[in-house]
Amino acid sequence: MTKPIVLLLVLFLIVCAICAGWTKNLLVSIVIFMSYSLIMSIIWIFLQAPDLAITEAAVGAGVTSVLFFATLRKINAIGSGDGKEEPHEPDTK
Amino acid sequence: MSRIRNNYENSFRARFLRYIMGEDELPEKNYMSDFRKQIDIEKEEDEKATEHYLVPPLEDPMSDAKRYAEMSGLRWFRRLYSVMAVLLCIAISALLIYNVTFMPRFGASDSPMNNEVTERYLEKAGEETGTVNVVTGLILQYRGFDTFGETHVLFIATIAVMILLKIKKKDKPEEAAGEPVGGDVILRTIARVLVPMIFLFGFYVLVNGHLSPGGGFSGGAVIGAGLILHSAAFGFSATARFFDEKIYDIIKVGSLVLYSMLIIYYLFTGANDIDSVVPLGKLGNIISSGLILPINILVGAEVACTMYAFYSLFRKGGI
Fold first, then answer.
1. Rounded distance, CA B248 to CA B189, Å?
2. Which one of A68, B123, B170, B179 counts the least CB within 10 Å of its CB?
3. Cα Rg for chain B, rounded, in angstroms?
4. To which H or E segment does residue B148 belong?
């Protein structure tokens, strides 16, 4: 019964891993990486390692992603969050 | 969003290529506007160059032909590099997957992991350490020395990050101007409900470390995540009301010292075959298993402080 669920989750995991590397946008990449960690924590539960699942959910999906977001903001790759969008360069032909 | 797709000049790759070619310095502060200025300057220079194309600039060491040659060499190198990288990745993954086929099936009874060590741990951990969750007993007692070293690694890592990222007090005012006051309404409303629950869950995981899955590191990580959520939603000043630099220093150093003392007591009694004076208590009670409960709480405090310190240092360069 659990085997098809685990297979589906592993499939999601592989798709997430590939997408996180392929996407051009760093913000989207981090969100995909976050979902990768969440899926991984569910797989840990199926592998009967609930302590690892708790740690993975807290560290992998939570703290690491937040640190990545903070870094992106430091290097001005995402907006500063005060409602001001970063100016776009108009298309030049 | 960060940038639009077809804006090639501002993409990371183009900037990286320009950086490699040494055409312009990597801009420091606001590279978007700096870069736009750069384009204008380059355009003007191009126009000037077309006006005086009969007189080639002799002092320019990078002539067009040389630049082109270098560019094509670079291009070939990049192509070769990507092909080789893909080949190497495929080769290593194939090797690893081939090795995995030799491993025993997951949970097989005849796997070499199921030897007398595991058996002994599973049979005796209850009466020797007083833990229902054998993993915690294993980490904090049988292999307590390893965990002792790991905790210190975490502590040293925080110190290293602090040295790298900490901003001096006198430079702070200008930094404080851009300091976020807090998140928007949705984040605040949800955080008001979620943060107490996260703290409660983290504390539950900490205190029940010897009875149910979890323990010092997991519970500490959950509490640290709760602290981060609180400061992201209500601003650093709100978190500083109950968790400022002074309290951080006291908790972090104090818990590490206490933890070290407790572990050294364990090592001393274990190595000299002395019975510990701390009673193990009844198996399955909250107050049981000797020193494992206080050690779990101390490790949790240490980890929670570390997690919050990382976030805080990244965001504003201080606790």
1. 27
2. B170
3. 29
4. helix B144-165
- Taking only the tens place, the pLDDT of each residue in B206-248 is 888 888 888 888 899 999 999 998 988 888 888 888 888 889 8
Q: How far is B244 from chain A (nearest CA, A)?
A: 19
Q: Which residues of chain B have a Cβ shorter than 8 Å from any chain A Cβ?
A: 1-7, 9-11, 30-32, 36, 106, 133, 135, 178, 180, 205, 213-215, 217-218, 221-222, 224-225, 228, 232, 307, 310-311, 314-315
Residues of A with CB under 8 A from a CB of B: 24-27, 47, 50-51, 53-55, 58-59, 62-63, 66-67, 70-72, 74, 76-81, 86-89, 91
**Whole-model pTM?**
0.70
Q: Which residues of B touch A50 (CB under 8 A)?
A: 213-214
Spatial separation of the C-alpha atoms in residues B8 and B72, rounded to whole Å: 19
A26, A67, A74: residue with CB nearest B2:
A26
Q: Hey, where are the domains in chain A? A: 2-74
DSSP characters over B230-299: HHHHH-HHHHHTTS-HHHHHHHHHHHHHHHHHHHHHHHHHHHTTPPPSS---STT-SS-STTHHHHHHHH
